[in-house]
Amino acid sequence: MKFAQLNAFGVPSEVVDCVEGAAPGQPGADQVLVEMLACPINPAELLIIEGNYASKPPLPAHLGIEGAGRLLAVGEAVTDLAPGDLVMSMGRANWAQQLLLKAGEVVKAPPGTDVAQLSMLKINPATAQLMLSDYVDLKPGDWVIQNAANSGVGVNLIRLAKAHGFKTVNVVRRESLIAPLKAIGADAVLLDGPDLAERVAKATVGSAIKLAIDAVAGAATERLADCLAEDGTVVNYGLLSGEACRLRADQAIFKSITLTGFWLAKQMRAMSSAGLAALYGDLMPRIADGSLQVEVEATYGLEEIKQALAHAGREGRGGKVLITPNGPVS
Ligand SMILES: NC(=O)c1ccc[n+]([C@@H]2O[C@H](COP(=O)([O-])OP(=O)(O)OC[C@H]3O[C@@H](n4cnc5c(N)ncnc54)[C@H](OP(=O)(O)O)[C@@H]3O)[C@@H](O)[C@H]2O)c1
Hints:
Layout: E1 2-6, H1 12-15, E2 16-20, E3 31-40, H2 43-50, E4 61-62, E5 68-74, E6 86-89, E7 98-102, E8 106-108, H3 115-119, H4 124-133, E9 143-147, H5 152-164, E10 167-172, H6 178-183, E11 188-191, H7 196-203, E12 209-214, H8 219-227, E13 233-236, H9 249-253, E14 258-261, H10 264-270, H11 273-288, E15 296-300, H12 305-312, E16 320-323
Parallel strand pairs: 9-10, 9-12, 10-11, 12-13, 13-14, 15-16
Antiparallel strand pairs: 1-2, 1-4, 3-5, 3-7, 3-16, 5-6, 6-8
Helix pairs in contact: 4-5, 7-8
The structure holds NADP nicotinamide-adenine-dinucleotide phosphate.
């Protein structure tokens, strides 16, 4: 059985190998055996591999925060799942041809769900949904502003905001993204830049914006904060610029802007199993009916892991890079 192995922290395309290992064997009573079909490569995986994430795993390490697959076998005590079921994995070593998981670590998908989209359900849709719900009490018609709006999280946020009746101002760094983001429901799409606040005020006809979602940090945080109304909140969830979040004293003091951070892993640890079930119970049908979806730019086999990681690290992509451990998926 093939799986991806991290051997040392460093340049992703150099330090991860596809290695051959023993198959995991048959499931124990409360386990399931999953044939992994698709797994995205997220920016967080690149940070883990570089040794720049919240913590460093002991080496050599298995990788892959997300993935979807089909059940090959279920343990004798598992009554609600059956071989052939399509599932999302809640495990954290998904870049492998097969995985043994506890039955409670998979979420069953409706038959016919797009496997590529299912593989991207665990992180980005949940991140977008929770950032929209947990910080500001938004009402239909309210505006939200976000940067890196063409990212996986950003596209999910546009689609979820639309479904909830919120309006979005979407900040990007390439003009070619304006039309495609408007086509999926973005209300305004603007290029980032020094005069952002004036252009946002024009696009929203001066509406008060209470929530800003920031994946970039650095001076981009400050520019988003300038677009907010008094007492607004900036939720930072990424460090794409590699810089510290910037907030000026006048923004904090005179406008009472709050800067806070979101980390899905921490949020999920604090959630009850009923809360998690409700979150994915809401998101799964949206993935299954296609109302939540992001573009896929390329797929690679596990044996092409180095090329896949190099591709995922490129800026200006047109969508996600996926690994398909058991061959192409339709
Ligand atoms: N805190 C959490 O719990 C959590 C959860 C999920 C994701 N995240 C973070 O959210 C961010 C987006 O993740 P994703 O999976 O949605 O990304 P993705 O789909 O892989 O897309 C990457 C995005 O990053 C943008 N980007 C890359 N470098 C940039 C830079 N220097 N300045 C501005 N934008 C830049 C890209 O813009 P171009 O297309 O113009 O290159 C693109 O929009 C990442 O930072 C990720 O780590 C955090």
